[in-house]
Design goal:
Elements: H1 10-14, H2 19-37, E1 51-65, E2 72-80, H3 83-89, H4 104-119, E3 122-130, E4 139-144, E5 147-151, E6 155-159, E7 162-169, E8 177-190, E9 193-205, E10 209-220, E11 235-247, E12 251-263, E13 266-267, E14 271-292, E15 307-314, E16 319-329, E17 332-340, E18 345-353
Helix pairs in contact: 3-4
């Protein structure tokens, strides 16, 4: 789960960025959570039996792997500067040779006029730096290009190109993978069909607020309609899974996956190995909502009136290939699989079977 050594919450981190920068900053966890949620749902296909009783309860763990390319971003978008940031862009006036003969009081007037004009505009800029899973020691920076403003009594004054450092670093500090775990219950089998559920009761997560999670899925073995339990050399199922994960008022994720999976039990009911594989189409969307404290022109450009920001981002993963192995001894089943997609991931589970 998201955490930080800093007392600053994830929402407070986002509040320091406009929507364009925030979208690029959080992009890796959009895919990370989505890939996790869509993984670990099956470790075998249900048997092609009309009536049976299979009950599994246990825990599954998922982990999406991040690459180096996921830890940095560069985004072009519009940006509005706070009064402090605008003031930092005008400090060049004190050292610029063209203002050396100007008294300090008048330099301050020039800086104030420049600051007010910078705060009153939104600029097309490049924002770059660590993503939410990037380095905790690097900062997000804004590349401000050279721009000329008209200052009353002094004519045109050019603010040189420079970088503005935001108080935003990699919130998760070089995270190598996004872990997630959930309790899972499966029950079947009626007409070759099995239902699966995941649920986490609402609970407080440090720096994120209340978290809640619910998901369900269904697998159906169409071989049931062929008239024999062993009509096919493998167990085959068509599957559909959907779930929703929410963290406070900051963000929530919805994920869906559907596809086909096959498995083959080798051994007996009380002791067996079951290799399994699947191909899934998937999608997930993460919705964000927070207040961005932009400068307020009606109040001397103080950042007192928040601008509500909300946006949806989709996971990069659209499909995955799953390859895994399941081992059962008496009532305990352990499985692990690897998932290949735009973002690769691994899942594992331990189940108690009745």
């Amino acid at each position: 789960m998201l955490s930080s050594a800093d007392a600053q919450s994830f929402e407070e981190t986002l509040q320091k960025m406009s929507s364009d920068a925030a979208k690029a900053y959080v992009n890796p966890i959009v895919s990370g959570f989505g890939v996790d949620l869509n993984g670990g749902w099956f470790h075998r296909a249900p048997r092609a039996t009309m009536f049976g009783f299979d009950l599994e309860v246990g825990v599954v763990g998922m982990e999406t792997i991040f690459k180096d390319e996921n830890k940095k971003f560069s985004s072009n978008g519009t940006f509005s500067f706070t009064d402090q940031q605008a003031a930092s862009l005008t400090t060049f006036v004190d050292s610029d040779p063209q203002f050396q003969s100007v008294p300090q009081a008048q330099r301050d007037v020039i800086k104030l006029q420049l600051q007010n004009q910078i705060e009153a505009q939104s600029f097309p800029l490049t924002v770059s730096g660590p993503t939410v899973v990037g380095s905790g020691t690097d900062s997000v920076t804004i590349a401000f290009p050279s721009k000329t403003f008209n200052v009353s009594g002094y004519g045109n004054v050019t603010v040189p190109g420079q970088k503005v450092v935001l108080p935003v670093t990699g919130y998760l500090g070089e995270l190598k993978a996004m872990p997630l775990a959930a309790p899972q219950l499966s029950i079947g089998t009626i007409a070759g069909t099995e239902l699966t559920f995941r649920y986490l009761p609402s609970q407080d997560i440090k720096n994120l607020g209340k978290a809640s999670y619910f998901g369900w899925g269904i697998q159906h073995n169409p071989a049931i309609w062929l008239g024999a339990v062993d009509a096919l050399p493998v167990d085959l199922s068509l599957s559909f899974f959907t779930q929703k994960l929410k963290f406070g008022d900051v963000f929530q994720t919805k994920a869906t996956a559907f596809g086909v999976n096959v498995s083959k039990r080798l051994g007996w009911g009380f002791l067996n190995l079951t290799p399994y594989a699947g191909f899934m189409f998937e999608s997930s969307t993460m919705s964000f909502a927070y207040d961005f404290y932009a400068p307020d022109p009606s109040n001397n450009y103080q950042p007192t009136l928040p601008e509500h920001v909300s946006f949806d981002l989709e996971s990069a993963n659209k499909s995955r290939l799953v390859v895994g192995l399941s081992f059962k001894l008496l009532i305990v089943n352990i499985n692990a699989d690897y998932n290949i997609g735009k973002y690769n991931s691994a899942t594992a589970g331990i189940m108690f079977i009745i």
